[in-house]
Amino acid sequence: MIGDNSWVGDDCVFYSLGEIKIGSNVAIAHKVYLNTGGHDYQKTTFDIFSKPIIIEDECWITNDVYIAPGVTIGKGTIVGARSTVLKDLLPGKICVGTPARAIKSRK
User: Which domains, from first to last, does the chain contain?
Assistant: First the structure.
């Protein structure tokens, strides 16, 4: 599901084994990878699992960002280029790095 006034750039991948929710007024730049699933490496059968990804309203996901299964990105948060998001990000933050972490609040 994608909310009103949101857009997705070129060469993005939405690996949708699980649900993907994108709020309103969200900008997803080029080459962003949303990954909702994987394999359980602790089992010899490598069972497939899925977890939803939620990107709340007014977020900007900049170029070449990876977002892992089960992540929620809080309202108004910006994720910097080439970041890897492995855990939830709080609302209203600017986050960068691998793994992504908040470096300051958004004004």
Answer: 7-105 (2.160.10.10)
